[in-house]
Design goal:
Blueprint: E1 8-15, E2 23-29, E3 32-38, E4 52-57, H1 58-63, H2 65-75, H3 77-87, H4 99-106, H5 111-117, H6 122-128, H7 131-141, H8 147-156, H9 158-163, H10 166-188
Antiparallel strand pairs: 1-2, 2-3, 3-4
Helix pairs in contact: 2-3
Length: 189
């Protein structure tokens, strides 16, 4: 699996927490973990400070608790855990995909597979049970969705709309039309 990946497996950049203004970069390759920092300060004493770099093999990084602490402070515990997993050979890029892309991919799965995927982790449970996913699925499965149907789905919730029988939707759409017609009559009078 690792041979299919590009040389840089993970990279992130960020600013150290206050009061420091240092800029930091974390880069993970197949063989190394590289932590770089640039001192940002208006004080004269730091005017000539040079950028710093710690470069360690992945095996050495796993044992370096002081670097773990620095990474957790700057980038957070989630990034540290991800880097540790990468160094252990656990490549889980699916968790790091943007939510809109995950929604798009998941919307092509069968419902049984979506139910199983929702049991993988808390974040996948939230995505698999979201209205946005149901909206994507409805739009993929239905040939035509009228603006009226979209409004009804937004009112009643896309998930409920998706699991509602077509025969049950027709009376709801009819009632909605009648209500709108009555409102339009009042406005014109």
């Amino acid at each position: 699996m690792a041979s299919l990946l590009r040389e840089e497996v993970f990279e992130t950049r960020g600013q150290a927490p206050a009061p420091s203004k240092d800029f930091c970069q974390l880069l993970v390759t197949h063989a190394e973990v590289i932590f770089r920092w640039w001192k940002i300060s208006l004080r004269n004493e730091f005017h000539e400070s040079r950028p710093g770099e710690v470069k360690e093999s992945q095996e050495d990084f796993l044992d370096d608790s002081s670097l773990h602490i620095q990474i957790a402070i700057v980038f957070g515990a989630r990034v540290l855990e991800h880097v540790l997993n990468l160094c252990r050979g656990n490549y889980d890029f699916l968790e790091w995909l943007p939510v809109p892309l995950l929604l798009y991919i998941i919307s092509f799965l069968e419902l049984e597979d979506i139910a199983r995927l929702s049991q993988v982790s808390h974040s996948f449970e939230m995505i698999c049970n979201s209205n946005a996913l149901c909206k994507n699925i409805v739009e993929n499965l239905c040939d035509t969705i009228t603006p009226e149907m979209k409004e009804l789905a937004q009112e009643m919730d896309w998930k409920q709309f998706f699991f509602t029988n077509r025969l049950q939707l027709q009376p709801q759409l009819r009632r909605r039309r009648q209500k709108q017609d009555a409102q339009n009559k009042k406005i014109t009078e």
